[in-house]
Each structure stands twice: as C-alpha cells, then as structure tokens.
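At this stage, I put together one protein's amino acid sequence and its backbone structure tokens, which the following lines show:
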Amino acid sequence: MHFLRITVCCLLLGGIAKAQVSNSPTLNPSDESVDHLDSLLEAFYDSNPAWRFDEQDYALNGLAVTDTPRFTPEVIADRISKINSPIPYTYNKSVQTFIDLYTIKRRTQVSNMLALSQVYFPMFEEELDRRGMPLELKYLPVIESALNTHAVSKAGATGLWQFMLGTAKLKGLRIDTYVDERRDPHMATIAGCQYLQDLYNIYGDWLLAIAAYNCGPGNVNKALRKAGGGDKTFWDIEQYLPKETKAYVPIFIAATYTFEYHKEHNIRPATFGYDFSMSDTLMITHKMTIDQLAPYVGISADEIALNNPALKTKTIPGSPVPYPLILPQKAVAAYYANKDSLYASLERKEQIASQQLAKNVAAVNAANDKLKPKPATVAGTGDSSVTTATATPINTTTPDLTLADPDAPVTVNYTVKKGDNLGYISDWFDCTVADLKKWNKLSSTQIVPGQKLKITVPAKYEQQYAQINNMTLSQKQKLTDIALISPASTTDKGPVVTNDIIFYTVKPGDTLWSISQAYPENSIDKIRELNDMGKDETLKTGVKIKLVK
C-alpha cells in the first residue's frame, strides 16, 4: 500500500475539480464497515507530528510575516558545521551566494517547496534509510526539480530526480508512449537513490557522487585526471568540472542549510498543519482512459491524473501488462464496488468498435474487389498460374472476445512446406521476418520443408491463424496481396512479372547495388524493406526477391 499526502499538492496546483461527468452511472456503495476502518487508519497516520507545520513555531522569533532576517557569515558557517551528516558540508563564498538566493530572493518558491516536502520527504527518507544512505540526500530533488514531478530540463531530464532517458532505462524505469516512470515519485525515488549509491560506491565521497549525478561520472573522472589523480575532494577538482557542476554542490549545500534553518530565516510553508490522505495501488488489467474510469470511482479525471503523474496521456495501458494505478482510498473502495459494471461498459464499447472495424474492412475489400482485374495469363509465358486473387486477411475476421484477455500473446505452430520462405510466412501471419527469426532463434532466413516454426499471435485470433498450417499454398497466398507464382512461371532469364511486383531470381555476382541499377525503381533500402532483409544480410544465388515493377 502506498501512502501519499496529496492535499498540499492540490492547494498549490489550484485545487481539483471534483464535479462528476454528466450522465454518470449509478454507483454501488462501498462497504461501510471497511470505510470506517479506513477512516480510523487515516486518522492514525494523520496524528503523526513529524511533518506538521505549526504556525506558533514561527512566532517564537517575534518576526512579522514580511520580515526577512539576515545573518553574518560567522553565524551561517556555524550552523552549517552543526548539520549532523556524513556528507562533508563546507561554507564558502559560493555557498553563501546560493543561500542568499534561497533565503532572500526566492522565499516564495522555498515556501511552496516546504509545503511539498510533506508529500515527498517521507518517501525520500524511507528509501534512503532502507539503503543506509545519508537522509540529507533528500534535498537533492529540491535543486534538481524544485519538487515538481513534471519538471523537464532543456536537455530532456525529467521528473523529481531529473533522469535523462538513457540513465532512467539503465536503472529500470519504464518509458514508452503512455508511461514515463521518471515522473512517478515512488519509482523515480528508488532509481535515484540506487544511482546515487552506485556513484558513492565508485568514488567513496558523497560530494563527488553528487557531482557525478549532475554531470556524469565520465566528466568527474576527467576532472580527477586533470587534477593529478589520487585521493581528491570535490573542491580539489572543482576548477576542472563543467560550469554547471561547479555550482551544483554549493547549491546543494545551500538548499540543505535553507531547509534546516528555514524557521530562523522566517520562511513559512505555503500551508500550515498536516493533512494526510491515504491512497492505495490497483492493478488495472484492461486498457482504458481516465475519463472512462472516473465515473466508476467517484472522483474526477483530474484527480486520477494528479495521483498518477507517470501517465503521459489520459490512457491507462492495462493490457497486455497490468498497470499499477494509484487512487485515494475512497476511490479504491468505489472501484471494487463497481468493477464489474466498469469492465462490462468497456467490453460493450470494444465490441461496438470491433463490429464497426469489421464493417469498414468489408467495405474497403468490396471496393478493392471492384477495381481488381480478373486473373490473367502473364504475357509471354503462356501460363495462367500467376493470379492476383486475394482474400480477407486473418486479422479482419471476427475475433474471439469471450476470452479473459483477448490481446494476450499465444503461440501457434506452423510446419514449413515446399516452396515456403520467411517472406511468405511473415505475410500470412501478419508479422515480420525479423519476428520469425527472433521467435525461432534463426541465424539466417533459410528454412527447410518439415521444419517447425513457433509464431506469436493475439489470443482472439488463435484459431484463425492455426488454420493456416493446413492450407494449400494457393489458399495461403490469397490471405495477402502478394501474387502467387508457381515454379513453372519462373525462368533463369530474368524476373517474373505480376500485376503489382516482380520476382527476381538472384544470379551469381548480383549485389543489391547492381540490382538497384538494373531496376531504377528500386533503391537498396527499398529492396531490403520489400524482402524484410536486415542490414547485415546478403543475397544468396537462386533466391527469389521482390522488386517494384
């Protein structure tokens, strides 16, 4: 269970519109006895004074809200020396410059970050403590992102811990069309702490590890070489580091000082008190949008999005891999009470969409059939075995939507027949040659009759694809737009022509370049694309390849 403190975030972000969507379904009530237990548990955590901001604490110094106290360098240096941490904090001119920035020029921003600290610092401290790392490292996201989950730098670093895409994937974060876990506070915190720990294990010095977090270990190593190597501190190599990193460690020290002594500087949090909101994680197993989910959990789509900053769009990608969605506890209760109605609604909409898609495909096929010429004999061959007849592709037939997960990948078997090649087979099964090679661990495109191939297909089309193994070559070719060519229609004198493409038999000495020159409509890249050839694959004598007419 995840416990998130979200109320402060909502206040800072301008609140959440909780008006329900019109025509919302009638919700089933959640279990009152369990709701009562939830409220008792939330009250228990809300009584924790660890992160409570009391207004009376800020009145002890006798300062007005608008007062901005200033202190001598001696006082500030003494305070920094009293910060109890294994991190070697230092006071100097650079540190003082950034302390002035936080405590004088950016007081409002610090006030907002103090409020946000109620949300994130407990999470940071829990992970740091679990790893035995200094708790003061919780101030690193303050200088990285100002505690903004959606922060993006000019270079593309994203989230609370400002991960670049490559480093994020190296640490196991998921980044795709729908999800960016760099923006997920919990996942990014685990990755950020792990990365810092890895860097400390390399350098054995927290300030060097922090510098490497900013500019990369390569730049720190380069600076160490320029400084003569050996046992050097950050201050020994500072002059050899990138400009931004020279300031990075002083800013970190200044941020630590500002948060540790914000009361002395009369910087008050944006909100007082401590409002704990309990949330939990659901595993969503069906693709849907937050707008579709919202009416069934009793909160707005905006509140769902606020609790799940890793979602890049309104889509929750629950299939084929379940997605962990975080919701307030009251919404979790509503979800379980109305889960069946939600999924029934989604299935109805999916069936309607599937039926409409089938109608569209049928209409397109009907229009294409009217435009296609009847099968004809290829000029000059006297052979009518070349045909352009087509049939509805397997993946446009009616799918089996009664399955628990229609889109789940399943495996069907295919036995290679005489005349087959991977190009044909990939067209029949709506995949690529690369897929076939990967699934069957093939090092080349060569296959032999009788060879068994494993092919991954969606569960809802398993029966249709399985039927291909028992079809004749003519029947299989009618599943695609590729013309069927019988052995009698090929010669060694040149390519065989169909209405759409030509099939060329590779001769000794042929190269992709020589063929592209002989048939100008085909570039080297086009030939590779037509025949699903990898960049490292070469032509083999006697093999037939497709070319544009």
User: Anything to note?
Assistant: Confidence is low (pLDDT under 50) at residues 1-22, 376-393, 481-499. DSSP finds 21 helices and ten strands in the chain. The longest strand covers residues 277-284. Strands lie at 3-4, 277-284, 288-289, 315-316, 323-328, 409-415, 452-458, 496-497, 501-505, 544-548.
